[in-house]
Here is the input.
Amino acid sequence: MQAKKIILKSLIITSLGCFASINLVAQSPFTGIENLFSEPKSYTLFNTKTPLKIDGELNEKAWLDSSWSDFFVDIEGDLKPVPTTKTRIKMLWDEKYLYIAAQLQEPHVWANTKPEKDIIFRDNVFKIFIDPDNNMNDDFEIQINPQNNMLFLIMNKPYRDAGVPVSGWIPIGLQSAVKINGTINKAEDIDNGWTAEIALPLSAFNFNPKDAKQNTNLRINFLRTNFDFLVKDGVYSKALDSTGKAFAPHYSCWSPQGIINMHYPERWGYTLFSENTPNHSEQTFIVPYSEKQRKYLWLAYYKQKEYFKKNKRYASSLNELKVSENDIQIDGKKNTLNLEANSRQFLISIKEEGSNSIITLDQDGLISK
Here is the structure.
């Protein structure tokens, strides 16, 4: 009898342990998609009191005193190995411009010399993605290649939400330069890489860093695209697979997206515009409370999009999505999630208990407050 009691007690303890483990896992609603909820990186942009000469040299004191970002990682982050070629950026600002410098290590600097369908965005390029008001719609994409050729796109909303890009736009007052640390399109030698320096007019984004309400609104990320190549008769071209199609490019970015898609603006990095010059200490970026609330909006959004793929309609309740409405604790404060939906549209909202502030997210990925 004593042996039976010991066995029974052991089973109960084991069962309780299992339940504890289950509850522990259940406490995180982001389990299984953690890659989409890692904290984006941040960068302090210092102010340059003297306008910069855009020549690709980066030899002004403001640039020399500015810190380089971390080296880029794979677009999926820790899910993939560290890129074989290094890339990093610096940023500055003044009253007129957002300055961006990119340093790209590359032993073979090459660019397409033919004006056919293989245009810039299908080549080795450096890309900039900007959301100036952190609403996840009306974003900008800017591309530059080693020849200083550029492409500009405005997205009314992300591709995932049936967004349509508008091209042909060039910011008035734009300046850019590229410096090749080696020789471009010369296969016989080994290069060090290339540097891009760009001055983007702040007026093009309707963004004012001196406005306290806008100061931390600008979200940004950077992508480097590299294709495998081959050389024939001294000419570079993309390596092709057995079907004659170019191999998928290698993507590396500053703040990891967690997915092979740059058009997830909620994954872009944070910025903090400082009135100080670059010889000051960097300011610590503190993720705003509202950004922590948004994580739960995006959780429901992702699940709604997945639900639509399977059912050809949106879920009418959070219960259908297996998303909790009430058990949301953010910095010790209780929040409530709400969903309004029909088969083709939805609006998710989050509200802190006792607060009048509500943040919403709709089927187009538009954030409103």
Observations:
- The CA atoms of residues 189 and 342 lie 61 Å apart.
- Residues 1-25 have pLDDT under 50 and may be disordered.
